[in-house]
């Protein structure tokens, strides 16, 4: 991929800086403080690859996006411009000029006629059966958002209806504080809508959750009635130990049925759950506990993933010691005994604080009044990585999130009541919140919760599960698709998979060869793939195919969901029309949008709304082809996407420098065959310390310990010095090129304070 460079425009990509665009002095807004004062900005840094040149249909190289015609100022009458082309069938993909979405060195331009039409049978039964039907609904959602979303919201239970003003929004920092509200004044409860409402509608005996354990012989199930009763018992217990509306509850559980159960119990009593992925380390858990000060922590003693037992309780114990040192002590640690992983007797225990779930929760009544909530009352907090070392507490509220997750789930997967749905994501991430728990349960769906690893006991496990439960909708991440693809078709073809109807992908761009394998081999060329682009911040799908409606292009997330107005802007914040590449923003709010960063509204505005005033800035790059299809090109900030997990480079750097032998570290992302991106760390040691294999291992261990195993660097590159400009800024462009061994593309190194550093680094590349 050839990257253009624009010396004026800088998106810094190194440790600890907010997004700054120094080339825009005319815009007052840029005087706002960056996220971290001490952050460096990179002089002479290249423009990130989203602005990369691309090829015209005749194969000739085209210039960067700045050469595109300047955009017109948009009026509300031309908002449909990016989807209008769908009213007619798009031209073939042979001429798609976009290479940016393509990873692993594939070239879309070589794919002739790569346009996959939904089969007639599927379209015939689909909720949205044609581009025209989509356009009709999309048009209404944009022209009359209040009416569109009110009609949908009315299908839920509201104790009191929302006020006349369905939504309020200010996304423009120049007009005052950013504020988004949907259905304010409406009184509801999301747990009630997931459970009681479905039970009342006659779904009491329908299976809500199937649980498949790590070991194939362990499984379980709960009907909507069972789940409601268990949620009520836990809710009663939580009330009994003093959890009240608005209190935070930290949840550190693996994929047991108790995880969604806990989320629902919190929601039932108005407590704000903060689920921490049970792969995060004690330090990371402690950091989150200190930030949100929970009344109770809920965990389990251990989990088995594949052949490995992970002692979760020890991690929680260590985190609670750490958080107590910071002045936050937690009185109650409710611990579920996961007997298939560890017996009680072997669990570390602190009398007075720790209590076994099984000893107390089942004693409580199976009914529990709900705590009614305003639509804008907080529902949950979920921490996510940003460009500084401190994770961001993304806050979602109740009513809009409810309506949005339910609706996106229904349409993007063409949900039917007879479906059996399996999303492989963990509830520790947003996908598990919106599309394992809330979205499907709000629709009365049957959901599979899988505790184990997809390649245990062998790489056919997923398809074994698909056949066992007759899964009809299967939603996963490209990293899993690639890793199973590598293991060969034999593991797939061994199973029938004939129950499958719709496939889904999330977390990173899915490269066309993985898309095709997923489509042809897993889905037997009959299941559409919903490649859903969205984020922790957006709450639900933003750009996604509606199966049955679209011809698909492998690797493209296609078109916006109802009510979403994606725009691509150039470095000046100008909307670019038609075929283009740029920064993906959204104008106008949608019900599922996050409302703030917990305790830091200023960071919310600085990170998401100041870079391009008037818009929500996603942090992603995007191309749009001449047919209006969207092609996500990855993060343009300091976030690496490893196996679909967001990790801030600054977080990894600060973990590395906490090692006493590490003087300085600079982390970049590199292409990785399975994970999408891998973590590549340049490390400068303190004077007098020698490189060694042991030190390399220790540095990796330090990151595992501070963040979690999923953030462990794939490479440590010894660096006697880092390439810095004369003003001391690290030039990450050069580091990225060295990391990916594109040594002939290093570009101009003459602005470096010491250009010989580059040769030293190259010499050490294999060490
Ligand atoms: C990336 C996960 C391309 C993107 C739901 C985004 C994707 C980040 C896709 C959010 C997709 C997610 N195609 N890229 N279908 N889905 N991403 O907050 O870079 O964990 O900004 O939410 O993942 O990650 P997060």
UniProtKB/TrEMBL annotation:
GO molecular function: acetate-CoA ligase activity; AMP binding; ATP binding
Enzyme Commission number(s) from the entry: 6.2.1.1
Name the UniProt record assigns to this protein: acetate--CoA ligase
Acetyl-coenzyme A synthetase N-terminal domain sequence ranges: 134-194
GO BP annotations, alphabetical order: acetyl-CoA biosynthetic process from acetate
Top EC class for this record: ligase
Compositionally biased intervals (Acidic residues): 34-45
Region span, Disordered: 1-73
Transcription regulation recorded as keyword: no
Domain AMP-dependent synthetase/ligase, residue spans: 204-589
């Amino acid at each position: 991929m050839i990257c253009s460079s624009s010396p004026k425009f800088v998106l810094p990509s190194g440790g600890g800086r907010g997004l700054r665009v120094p080339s825009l002095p005319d815009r007052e807004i840029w005087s706002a403080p960056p996220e971290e004062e001490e952050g460096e900005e990179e002089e002479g840094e290249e423009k990130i690859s989203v602005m990369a040149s691309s090829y015209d249909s005749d194969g000739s190289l085209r210039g960067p996006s700045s050469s595109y015609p300047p955009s017109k100022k948009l009026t509300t009458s031309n908002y449909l411009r990016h989807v209008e082309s769908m009213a007619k069938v798009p031209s073939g993909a042979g001429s798609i000029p976009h290479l940016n979405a393509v990873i692993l060195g594939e070239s879309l331009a070589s794919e002739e006629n790569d346009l996959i039409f939904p089969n007639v049978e599927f379209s015939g039964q689909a909720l949205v059966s044609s581009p025209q039907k989509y356009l009709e609904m999309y048009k209404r959602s944009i022209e009359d958002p209040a009416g569109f979303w009110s009609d949908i919201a009315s299908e839920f239970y509201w104790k009191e209806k929302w006020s006349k003003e369905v939504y309020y929004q200010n996304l423009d920092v120049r007009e005052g504080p950013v504020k988004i509200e949907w259905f304010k004044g409406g009184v509801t409860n999301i747990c009630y809508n997931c459970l009681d409402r479905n039970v009342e509608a006659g779904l009491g005996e329908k299976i809500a959750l199937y649980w498949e354990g790590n070991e194939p012989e362990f499984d379980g199930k709960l009907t909507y009635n069972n789940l409601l009763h268990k949620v009520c018992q836990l809710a009663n217990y939580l009330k009994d130990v003093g959890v009240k509306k608005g209190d935070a509850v930290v949840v550190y559980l693996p994929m047991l049925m108790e995880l969604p159960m806990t989320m629902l119990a919190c929601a039932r009593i108005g407590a704000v759950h903060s689920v921490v992925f049970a792969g995060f380390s004690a330090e990371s858990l402690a950091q989150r506990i200190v930030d949100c000060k929970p009344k109770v922590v809920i965990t389990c003693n251990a989990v088995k993933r594949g052949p490995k037992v992970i002692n979760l309780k020890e991690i929680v114990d260590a985190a609670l010691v750490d958080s107590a040192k910071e002045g936050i002590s937690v009185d109650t640690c409710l611990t579920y005994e996961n007997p298939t992983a560890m017996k009680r007797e072997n669990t570390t225990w602190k009398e007075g604080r720790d209590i076994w779930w099984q000893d107390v929760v089942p004693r409580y009544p199976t009914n529990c009044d709900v705590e009614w909530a305003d639509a804008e009352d907080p529902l949950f907090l979920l921490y996510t990585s940003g460009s500084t070392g401190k994770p961001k507490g993304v806050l979602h509220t109740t009513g809009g999130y409810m309506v949005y997750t339910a609706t996106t789930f229904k349409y993007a997967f063409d949900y039917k009541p007879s479906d059996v749905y399996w999303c492989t994501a963990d509830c520790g991430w947003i996908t598990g919140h919106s599309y394992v728990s809330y979205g499907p349960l709000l629709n009365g769906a049957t959901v599979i919760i899988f505790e184990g690893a997809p390649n245990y006991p062998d790489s056919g496990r997923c398809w074994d599960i698909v056949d066992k439960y007759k899964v009809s909708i299967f939603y996963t991440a490209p990293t899993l698709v690639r890793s199973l693809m590598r293991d060969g078709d034999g593991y797939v073809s061994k199973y029938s998979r004939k129950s499958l109807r719709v496939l889904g992908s999330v977390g990173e761009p899915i490269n066309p060869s993985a898309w095709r394998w997923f489509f042809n081999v897993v889905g037997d060329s009959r299941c559409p793939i919903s490649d859903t682009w969205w984020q922790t911040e957006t709450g639900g799908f933003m750009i996604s195919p509606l199966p049955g409606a679209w011809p698909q292009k492998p690797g493209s997330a296609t078109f916006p969901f109802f009510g979403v107005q994606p725009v691509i802007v150039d470095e000046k914040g100008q909307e670019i029309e038609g075929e283009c590449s740029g920064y993906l923003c959204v104008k106008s709010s949608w019900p599922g949008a996050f409302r703030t960063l917990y305790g830091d509204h200023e960071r919310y505005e600085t990170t998401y709304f100041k870079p391009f005033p008037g818009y929500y800035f996603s942090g992603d790059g995007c191309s749009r082809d001449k047919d209006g299809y969207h092609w996500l090109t990855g993060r343009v900030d300091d976030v690496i996407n490893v196996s679909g997990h967001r990790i801030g480079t600054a977080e990894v750097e600060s973990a590395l420098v906490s090692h006493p032998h590490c003087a300085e570290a600079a982390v970049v992302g590199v292409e990785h065959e399975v994970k999408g991106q891998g973590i590549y760390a340049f490390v400068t040691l303190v004077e007098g310390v020698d490189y060694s294999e042991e030190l390399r291992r220790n540095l990796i261990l330090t990151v595992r310990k501070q963040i979690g195993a999923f953030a462990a660097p794939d490479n440590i590159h010894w660096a006697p010095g880092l390439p810095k400009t004369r003003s001391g800024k690290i030039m990450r462009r050069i580091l990225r090129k060295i990391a990916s061994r594109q040594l002939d593309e290093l570009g101009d190194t003459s602005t470096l304070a010491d250009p010989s550093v580059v040769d030293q680094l190259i010499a050490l590349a294999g060490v």
